[in-house]
Design brief:
Elements: H1 2-16, H2 22-33, H3 37-40, H4 46-53, H5 57-73, H6 75-85, H7 87-104, H8 111-139, H9 144-173, H10 178-202, H11 215-218, H12 226-255, H13 262-283, H14 291-310, H15 313-335, H16 338-341, H17 345-376, H18 384-399, H19 417-421
Length: 425
C-alpha cells in the first residue's frame, strides 16, 4: 500500500497542476506567428521589389533563401547568446531584432541594405528558433505537448498570413507601397515583444529561474551527439520535401501540360500544414514521444510525393495534399521532442543542433535536384534526390531517441519518466 501511495503521489500532483496556462499558450502562439511570417512576406512583394531595385530573378529568390541560410548557420551562436542573457530576455530581443530587420527592408531603395537587413532578421529568427522550445518547460511544465502544438500552429498560421495575406490585405492598406507594407508587418512583432516584456517583469528572480540550475540543464549538446543527427536528418527530410515541392511544382506541372492546376496545387499544398496543425492540437498530444506515428507520417510524406509524380490531374493533387499533411505532422512531432528529452538550456542546444543539421541538408538536396533536372532535361528529376533522402531518413526515425534516457555515451541526469508524461498533455 505504501508503494502504491508513492506511485500515486506524483501522478496526483501532475493532475493537480494540469490547469491550462492560457496566458503562456497565447504568448507561445504569438511568438510562433513571427518565426516564419517575416520571411514569407517577401515573395508576394517580389515583383514590386524587383522593379524598384532592378533585381534579377536570382536576387529576388535570395530574399527568401538568405534568412533561412542565416537561420541555419547561426544556430549555435544563437544558443550561446540565449544562454548568456536568459531564454526569455533573448526571445524579447530576438523579436525586436526581427521587427527592426524586417521593417528596415522597407526603409531603403538600396539592394545591399535590403540584404543586410534580411541577414539581421535571420539572426533574430535563429534566436527565436532555439529559445521557444527551451521556454516550454518553464511556461507549460504540465502541458509540454500542447505548448509545442500551439507554437507550431502559430508558425503555420504565420506562414499562411505572410504568403496569402500580404498582397490582398497589407499591400492594399499600404496604398500599393511595398516599403510601407514591410513596415506595417513589422509593427505586430513589437507589440508581441512588449507582451513578453510584461511577462519578464512579472517574473520573480533571475531569468529562467523556474528551471533547476543543475549540470544536466546547462550541459551543451554537441554536433557530435548521435541524437542531434538522428533527429536532424528526419527534420531535413520534412523541411526539404516541402521546400522542393513548392520550388519545382510549377516546372513539373508545366512539363505535364497541367499548368492550369498550378494555382490549386499551390493553394491546397500550402494549406495542408494548417489542417495538420489543427489535427496536432486535437490528437497530436498522444503521438509525441511515440515512434509509430512519426514513422507513419514520414512515410506518408514520401509516398504522397511519389504519387504526385506518378499520377496526373486530381489524383496527383490529392497525393500532394497527403504529402504536405504527413510532412507537417512529422515536422511537428520532431520539433516537440527536445523539451521531452532535455531540460533547461540543453533544450535550446539540442534544438539548435538538430535545426542546424536539418536546415543545412534541406537546402542542399533540392539544389541537387534542380541540377539533375537541368542536366537531364527532365522536370520530375528535381524531386527525386530529396525523395530518396527522405526515404533513407526513415532509418533515422527508427533509431531516433524517444525517451529521456537517450543514446549518448555521456551519463547526465535526464528528465524523469513522470516528467515525460507531460509530453503527452
Amino acid at each position: 500500500m505504501a508503494l502504491r501511495a508513492q506511485v500515486r503521489s506524483p501522478v496526483s500532483s501532475l493532475k493537480a497542476n494540469s490547469a491550462l496556462p492560457w496566458g503562456a499558450l497565447a504568448l507561445l502562439w504569438l511568438a510562433g506567428l513571427y518565426m516564419r511570417l517575416p520571411i514569407l512576406i517577401a515573395p508576394p512583394l517580389a515583383g514590386e521589389i524587383a522593379e524598384s531595385l532592378s533585381l534579377g530573378s536570382a536576387a529576388v529568390g535570395a530574399l527568401t533563401t538568405v534568412p533561412y541560410v542565416v537561420l541555419a548557420l547561426s544556430m549555435m551562436l544563437a544558443v550561446r547568446f540565449a544562454r548568456r542573457i536568459g531564454m526569455l530576455r533573448a526571445l524579447v530581443l530576438a523579436l525586436i531584432i526581427v521587427a527592426i530587420g524586417s521593417g528596415a527592408r522597407g526603409l531603403t531603395l538600396s539592394a545591399p541594405v535590403l540584404f543586410t537587413a534580411s541577414v539581421v532578421m535571420g539572426l533574430g529568427l535563429a534566436v527565436m528558433q532555439v529559445t521557444i522550445p527551451a521556454l516550454l518547460r518553464d511556461w507549460t511544465p504540465s502541458h509540454l505537448a500542447l505548448g509545442s502544438a500551439v507554437y507550431i500552429n502559430g508558425i503555420t498560421v504565420g506562414e499562411l498570413l505572410g504568403a496569402g495575406g500580404t498582397r490582398p490585405v497589407v499591400l492594399t492598406l499600404a496604398g500599393g507601397s511595398w516599403q510601407l507594407a514591410l513596415l506595417l508587418w513589422s509593427l505586430p512583432a513589437l507589440a508581441i515583444a512588449l507582451l513578453l516584456v510584461r511577462r519578464l517583469r512579472a517574473r520573480a528572480g533571475p531569468p529562467d529561474a523556474g528551471q533547476a540550475p543543475d549540470e544536466a540543464a546547462r550541459r551543451p549538446v554537441s554536433l557530435r551527439s548521435s541524437r542531434v543527427w538522428l533527429m536532424g536528418i528526419p527534420l531535413a527530410a520534412s523541411v526539404g520535401l516541402f521546400m522542393a515541392a513548392n520550388a519545382y511544382m510549377s516546372s513539373i506541372l508545366d512539363a505535364r501540360g497541367e499548368t492550369e492546376l498550378l494555382t490549386l496545387a499551390l493553394l491546397f499544398y500550402n494549406a495542408s500544414p494548417l489542417a495538420a496543425s489543427l489535427v496536432m492540437l486535437w490528437r497530436g498530444r498522444r503521438w509525441i514521444t511515440r515512434r509509430w506515428p512519426l514513422g507513419i507520417f514520414a512515410a506518408l510524406g514520401v509516398l504522397g510525393l511519389v504519387g504526385f509524380l506518378a499520377m496526373e490531374g486530381w489524383p496527383a493533387l490529392i497525393a500532394l495534399v497527403i504529402s504536405g499533411f504527413g510532412i507537417t505532422l512529422e515536422l511537428t512531432l520532431i520539433m516537440a521532442l527536445p523539451p521531452c528529452l532535455e531540460r533547461g538550456e540543453a533544450v535550446a542546444s539540442l534544438t539548435a543542433g538538430m535545426s542546424f543539421v536539418g536546415y543545412s541538408l534541406a537546402f542542399v538536396m533540392p539544389m541537387v535536384g534542380g541540377w539533375m533536372a537541368e542536366a537531364f532535361d527532365r522536370a520530375s528529376l528535381s524531386l527525386w534526390p530529396m525523395l530518396v533522402f527522405a526515404a533513407l531518413s526513415l532509418v533515422a526515425v527508427y533509431r531516433m531517441p524517444m525517451t529521456a534516457r537517450g543514446d549518448d555515451e555521456t551519463a547526465v541526469k535526464r528528465p524523469s519518466a513522470l516528467e515525460q508524461r507531460r509530453c503527452r498533455l
